[in-house]
Design goal:
alpha+beta; N-terminal domain of MutM-like DNA repair proteins; 2 domains; four-stranded antiparallel beta sheet; 6 helices; DNA-binding
DNA sequence: AAGAACTCCTGTTGGC
DNA sequence: TGCCAACAGGAGTTCT
């Protein structure tokens, strides 16, 4: 499901109900998601107070008072649902499928000391939760190879050019590579390349000059990465199929897509007149305008 | 060693 | 209407 803007929206939704609360009880309803749950997962959480809820790339990081960090990843279909104390126990209608029930995909339930119940639901089970010592977090194999946060100062044209020098892989694949820029996913890469006027098929190495210095292309690209993500966060992320923020709110950035999901439609760029195409790169859909993205 | 292909899993959708 | 292949916001692992 979620790329950086959706994960950040989820983080902001969970923060007020998680931070400073304790886990009164944790229900773990299966042995694994994408990975096995940690040993004694529920025992290690129970009674712990959450000091803060952070985000790195598409990972949510709950810092626990006892010194461990609960790392949560939503995969493709993971989501959190918050039930307020005293609220009708009925799940929000938006979440009900034709059978009137999605509870078979409710894999983890947090019962918090402030009375809220937080349900982790994940139909495809590509998400996961693990626990690591706070001191080990930066060295953890899932974290240590992540590239820069796209919204931080560190992502500059010079950085991206340096990371792409000599790369023969496509610009699309390079931007999806979490080791280079951490947090972009399939939708936002398409949107970024459109805004920057760059073909997704172009070699990533074209972002650097022969000297390794940033090219004009990357000077254009980097500000668009930041702008698209900021716009999407501002909009509460994108709602496709079944994505919801934890309170059930819908994001609305999907109404701003210029290319994603728009195959066959006319390019919206003034004076372009091209037609949006869908191609497959690395087994995933890429949407772009062949006329104005070069 | 880079880059591409394959894999995990379930639900929805679109074409016949 | 029903059936079934294609596709879905991710990314670790395995190949070439």
């Amino acid at each position: 499901m979620p790329e950086l803007p959706e994960v950040e929206t989820v983080r902001r939704g969970l923060e007020p109900v998680l931070v400073d609360a304790h886990f009164d009880r944790v229900e773990q309803r299966r042995a694994n998601l994408r990975f096995a749950f940690p040993e004694r997962f529920t025992e290690r959480l129970t009674g712990q107070r959450i000091l803060s809820l952070g985000r790195r790339a598409k990972y949510l990081l709950a810092n626990l008072e006892g010194g461990e960090v609960l790392i949560m990843h939503l995969g493709m279909s993971g989501r959190f649902v918050i039930q307020r104390p005293g609220a009708n126990a009925q799940r929000p209608g938006e979440f009900l499928n034709e059978a009137g029930n999605t509870s078979r995909h409710d894999h983890v339930v947090f019962f918090m000391s402030n009375g809220t119940t937080i349900i982790y639901n994940d139909a495809r089970r590509f998400g996961f939760m693990i626990l690591v010592d706070a001191d080990e977090l930066e060295n953890h194999k899932l974290i240590r190879n992540l590239g820069v946060e796209p919204l931080g100062e560190v992502l500059s044209p010079a950085y991206l050019a340096a990371r792409c020098v000599g790369k023969k892989t496509s610009l699309k694949a390079a931007l999806l590579d979490q080791r280079i820029v951490a947090g972009l996913g399939n939708i936002y890469v398409c949107e970024v390349l459109y805004r920057a006027g760059l073909s997704p098929k172009r070699a990533a190495g074209a972002l650097a000059l022969a000297s390794g210095a940033p090219s004009q292309r990357v000077e254009k690209l980097v500000p668009e990465i930041k702008a698209v993500l900021e716009d999407a966060i501002e909009a509460g992320g994108s709602t496709l199929r079944d994505y919801h923020a934890p309170e059930g709110d819908l994001g609305y950035f999907q109404h701003s897509f210029a290319v994603y999901g728009r195959e066959g439609l006319e390019c919206a760029r003034a004076g372009c007149g091209g037609t949006i195409r869908r191609i497959v790169q690395g087994g995933r859909s890429t949407f772009y305008c062949p006329k104005c993205q070069r």
